[in-house]
Design brief:
- This protein is of the alpha+beta class and about 350 residues long.
- About 20% of the residues lie in helices and about 40% in strands.
- An 8-stranded antiparallel beta barrel has the order 1-2-3-4-5-6-7-8.
């Protein structure tokens, strides 16, 4: 993998990955004395570049943050947020060869509470005591979203993720997963973590009897836990599945498209205030709607995707008293329901 300093980017406009390991020996909590910067440098006009990525302490206590900023030639400034404090890093942050830098920590009122020198070195091997990072492009946002869902971690919501690189919310979710595994919660994407997440997903899919659905020719795909919903209904415009006692049901359908105004009306009906409705959580991004609520002892989980050629509709209902069995699959069922722009009934 070729790494370039921002000053060398004038002849190559593609983003470059820079990974640095740093020491700040005078730092005190919440600043880390040892940390990794996993960065992407994107060239701009003249000698200027944008720089963004992830900061993570490599020694306890855990500390991590999304960081972003700008570079002029080799000199960069990054900002991030630590516990009740703002982090600023300056120096040769975009130079894969490393160099000198400084950190400044300010409180919520903007008062400097500590500052000091930072030594930046290229990360050329495993992170000491933690292991090897995955390649910067080892996994995209959508695939990491899927792994984290099966790891029972909060992931992005609304429109399906499409970025080629993981988002800061996914780094945060990964840090939570690492903490649950009694590891240092860095949010860094280690190769061993991806391997374990994939193994855990495979085991969970097998235990759930996860069964794919879909029609590529019509632009949609989905899936469901057949171990919980073993009874398939007759073939028709709606795909129906239910529990053995019929009290839990899943319906998946591709309906004719709706106008934006009609979808607004539908969304208001689905997620508007209703007497007796409790624990409503919903998110809507344009023609994509996800929601969950409880009503009369029944949990409803839904996902609607309105496109020019069709309306994707998924509704899962189950008795609230069976949440232990079904709740782990709520987000998975929602997010595995994917539609293309050329969706059609």
């Amino acid at each position: 993998m070729l790494l370039c300093a921002p000053g060398a980017l004038a002849q190559d406009a593609s983003p470059k990955f820079v990974r640095l390991i740093a020491a700040a020996p005078t730092a005190a909590d919440p600043m880390a004395t040892a940390f990794v910067l996993d960065l992407q440098v994107t060239p701009g006009d003249d000698a200027q570049s944008d720089i963004e990525g992830w900061f993570a302490a490599t020694l306890a206590p855990a500390a991590s943050s999304e960081v972003s900023g700008h570079c002029v030639e080799l000199h960069c400034a990054l900002t991030g947020a630590l516990a009740n404090a703002k982090l600023t890093l300056t120096g040769a942050l975009g130079d894969p060869a490393g160099g000198a830098g400084r950190f400044v920590i300010k409180d919520d009122d903007g008062k400097t509470i500590q500052s000091g020198a930072v030594t930046l070195s290229p990360l050329t091997g495993p992170v000491p005591g933690l292991g090897a990072l995955a390649a910067p492009d080892a996994i995209n946002e959508a695939d990491l979203d899927d792994l984290l869902m099966w790891g029972q971690q909060t992931v992005s919501s609304g429109s399906p993720p499409t970025d080629p690189l993981p988002s800061h919310t996914q780094h945060e979710a990964l840090a939570s997963w690492q903490e649950a595994k009694e590891r240092l919660a860095t949010g860094l994407i280690f190769a061993a973590d991806l391997t374990q997440l994939r193994q855990e997903r495979a085991a969970a899919e097998k235990a759930a009897g996860w069964t794919p659905l879909g029609d590529p020719a019509h632009g949609w795909s989905a899936g469901y836990p057949a171990a919980l919903l073993p009874v398939a209904g007759p073939a028709g415009p709606e795909r129906r599945f239910s529990s053995a006692d019929g009290k839990a049901r899943l319906v998946v359908a591709i309906d004719p498209p709706m106008s934006s105004d009609d979808f607004d009306v539908l969304a208001h009906k689905l997620i508007g205030d209703q007497p007796g409705r409790e624990n409503l959580n919903s998110i809507r991004v344009n023609g994509d709607l996800e929601a969950r609520f409880e009503e009369a002892g029944v949990v409803t989980v839904l996902a609607y995707h309105n496109r020019e050629g069709g309306l994707g509709r998924l509704v899962l209902t189950y008795p609230a008293k069976r949440s232990d069995a079904f709740s782990p699959f709520e987000v998975i069922v929602q997010r595995q329901f994917k539609v293309a722009d050329d969706l059609k009934p």
